[in-house]
Amino acid sequence: MRIVKEAEERRNEILDAADQLFGQKGFDGTSTNDILEKVGIARGTLYYHFKSKEDIMDALIERYNVLLIGAAQEAAADKSISVYERIMRVVMALNISGNSSHEIMEHIHKPQNALMHQKIQKVIIGGVPPILADLIREGIEQGLFHTPFPFECMEMVVIYLNTIFDQDMVDMTDEGRLSRLQAFAFNIERLLGVENGSLMEMMQMFGSGEGDSQV
Q1: Which domain holds residue 198?
Q2: At a CB cut-off of 8 Å and minimum separation 6, what does 88 contact?
Q3: Rounded to two decimals, what is the model's pTM?
Q4: Would you say 108 and 19 are in contact if contact means Cβ atoms under 8 Å apart?
Q5: Nearest Cα residue to 77 out of 138, 156, 152
Q6: Do residues 194 and 148 both lie within one domain?
Q7: How many angstroms from the chain centroid is the CA of residue 31?
Q8: Same domain for 59 and 105?
Q9: 51, 66, 182, 196: which has the highest count of C-beta atoms within 10 A?
Q10: Are residues 57 and 94 both part of a single domain?
Q11: Mean pLDDT, residues 117-139 taken together
Q12: pLDDT per residue over 160-205, tens digit each?
């Protein structure tokens, strides 16, 4: 008996299968036939939901977008804790070792999935600075920060973190990592107009190993 499934359920089955196959074989190494066989559907059914394999990848990226940006937004919204701590929690929400996206990010970091990695980076750079900028504006109202460019400052921060501390972009020793973290804190304090040393404690959370491997 032929099983007819709701469109959304079938679409998610295709995405789940593609996600597994991309993790095992890489995006380039996975064919649409592989996906068809894994889900057990006809080619017409696949193309009813997705125009191409690239379209499937874009839909997976949107899934990751919801996961990562949603976690950052949730961290920013908790007004029971200080602005400083919320900023750190937003950054840590994007940390591989600190959230449920560990397996997702592991396969995105594989060389054969470089395009997926690039698209995730675009999501982070586009989605996180506005969240952090709102927190900086809140801190400005509280007299914590002093900058006329809250969004631009946070854009610089996210791009730097997303590039320098990406294990696929820059190779560094523990000593080099610590030096960069210290320089990062030093310069962020000047960008935000805060006292020397006020952000160093936050940055030490990264140095302790909690902030390994940004997306």
Answers
A1: 53-210
A2: 202, 205
A3: 0.71
A4: no
A5: 138
A6: yes
A7: 26
A8: yes
A9: 182
A10: yes
A11: 90
A12: 887 877 666 677 788 888 888 888 888 888 999 988 777 766 666 5
